[in-house]
Design goal:
Blueprint (H helix, E strand, L loop, with lengths): L1 H10 L1 H19 L13 H15 L4 E2 L8 E5 L6 H4 L6 E5 L7 H12 L10 H4 L1 H21 L2 H13 L1 H6 L5 H22 L2 H17 L4 H14 L2 H42 L9 H7 L12 H17 L4 H19 L10 H20 L3 H26 L2 H20 L3 H28 L2 H5 L3
């Protein structure tokens, strides 16, 4: 076994080193101003998960702030000077506290509360973002690694590396992954379940499917929207399992996966069934601003929190690439079909939950559509299509340069832009009329140069978005 691992490591040493460098880069970018961008208190849900976990560990009962009223629960208002919110703003609102807290399942809260406890937090005011965001940096490293593994399995190692790189430098992905929110907790569970499902389909060992189902149950215990993991697994079985095993495996996965929801109900019954039931139905009846334009909003607006919109052309490019790849390869390539199923499953959950108003409900889309963007880029690199690549590239080009230089600052680059466009037109014409291998190499070098430039701009944009610049993001 050890010899096999060593042989594989020597064979793939370049890939391993490249992945390690990407993980280091991603961690460096996320760690930059991680405790000030987004601003502390910008979404109080971050504190909520820490408080609920801490109170479960110390008192054996969940206590947190709630947005639910009139559910018959014990309510009081309390000033908690976490991150000096009250010191900096004496008019800062008092938190509407409740005990027991049933707004979400307790799984993710126990991780954040447990980490806070290990770091010495005993009171709620001690759970500042400087502490509670640290485990998110580690979770993001795991997420990046799993993106590489999934993209490599579904496509190839180059798509895997590019997917991991893009997830590590795209501003929306980097900044959103700092936040202490349950979506960031179950994204690696989502990816892990898809990896196990793919292993099952290739090796036909039911143990992989059972593990994937267990992970889907855990995802529900992080947040109810994690049920998208279970839905994805069921649809993948419907699409690819053998007729003889399909019904048995559908039943098995459903029973194991739905046990997460049953466990949440049992948790509510243990503390106070009547209040739990009222909170559950109150949550189900809330609309978070979801309207007829909910899907358009999800695709075109890179929302981070409830109030911050970060214009990010990378996300729009990822969605466009996802649509193009899905249309071209639906049911023709298993990797594309699995990702399309997963994106669609979460899209249905996103719409049903009325999630448009809060940016964090968009986070689970990111890892999936970024893989599709990486595959699209790899595909147009192999099969020259300069118009498609340039069209996709203009989205991040526009948003990055506009944020970094503004309209007036960009004007000084216009002469260079015109020269570059004439050169790109020449390359485009060459790919049409010159059917030679050297022309393809020129095309590939130009594509790689543009991609490197866009990646450099994305990295610069992350460093640009410091605590002061974040105030100007609206």
């Amino acid at each position: 076994m050890a010899k096999n691992i060593w042989r594989i490591a020597k064979k793939e040493i370049i890939i391993i080193l490249a992945l390690f460098a990407i993980l280091l880069l991603g961690n460096k970018l996320r760690s930059y101003n991680y405790d000030t961008v987004p601003h502390p208190g910008e979404t109080a849900d971050e504190y909520d998960f820490a408080w609920v976990g801490l109170s479960l560990i110390q008192q054996g009962i969940p206590i947190g702030w709630t947005g639910i009223v009139d559910a018959g629960q014990n309510i009081w208002y309390e000033k908690i000077n976490v991150d000096n919110l009250d010191t900096n703003d004496p008019e800062h609102f008092a938190f509407r506290m409740t005990k027991p807290w049933f707004d979400h399942p307790p799984g993710f809260a126990l991780i954040i509360g447990g980490y806070s406890y290990l770091k010495g937090a005993r009171q709620f005011y001690q759970t500042g973002v400087g502490i509670i965001r640290r485990p998110m940096l580690r979770i993001a490293i795991l997420t990046t690694f799993l993106i590489f593994v999934l993209a490599t399995r579904l496509y190839n190692k180059w798509v895997g590396l590019l997917s991991a790189l893009l997830y590590s430098i795209i501003p929306t992905a980097v900044i959103s992954s700092r936040l202490v929110l349950a979506e960031n907790g179950y994204i690696p569970l989502f990816l892990g379940a898809l990896i196990l499902a793919d292993l099952y389909l290739k090796k036909k060992k039911r143990a992989f499917l059972i593990l994937a189902a267990i992970i889907s149950a855990v995802a529900i215990l992080f947040k109810l929207s994690g049920i998208a993991v279970l839905i994805s697994l069921l649809l993948i079985i419907l699409a690819y399992d053998s007729k003889r095993e399909k019904l048995r495996n559908l039943t098995l996965v459903f029973i194991i996966g739905i046990s997460g929801l049953v466990a949440f109900f049992a948790y509510g019954a243990y503390y106070d069934w009547e209040v739990f039931k009222n909170v559950f139905f109150a949550q189900a009846g809330r609309l978070y601003g979801s309207g007829a334009e909910v899907f358009l909003s999800a695709v075109t607006q890179s929302k981070i929190t409830a109030t911050k919109f970060l214009s990010d052309g990378w996300i729009l490019a990822s969605w466009v690439a996802t649509f193009i790849v899905s249309i071209a390869e639906w049911k023709k390539r298993r990797g594309t079909t699995i990702l399309t199923i997963s994106v669609f499953s979460y899209l249905i959950v996103f719409i049903i939950f009325g999630s448009e108003s809060f940016g964090w409900y968009r986070f689970p889309f990111l890892s999936l559509i970024i893989i599709e963007l990486a595959y699209f880029i790899e595909k147009v690199l192999r099969e020259p299509n300069f118009f498609a690549f340039l069209g996709i590239s203009l989205f991040p080009f526009g948003t990055s340069l506009h944020r970094l230089y503004g309209i007036e600052g960009f004007s000084k680059f216009v002469p260079w832009l015109r020269v570059a466009l004439v050169f790109l037109l020449s390359v485009f014409a060459g790919t049409i009329f010159i059917d030679k291998i050297w022309m393809k190499r020129v095309y590939q070098l130009v594509v790689l140069a543009i991609l490197a430039f866009l990646c450099a701009m994305a990295i610069k944009e992350i460093y640009f978005l410091d605590v002061n610049a974040w105030y100007r993001v609206s």
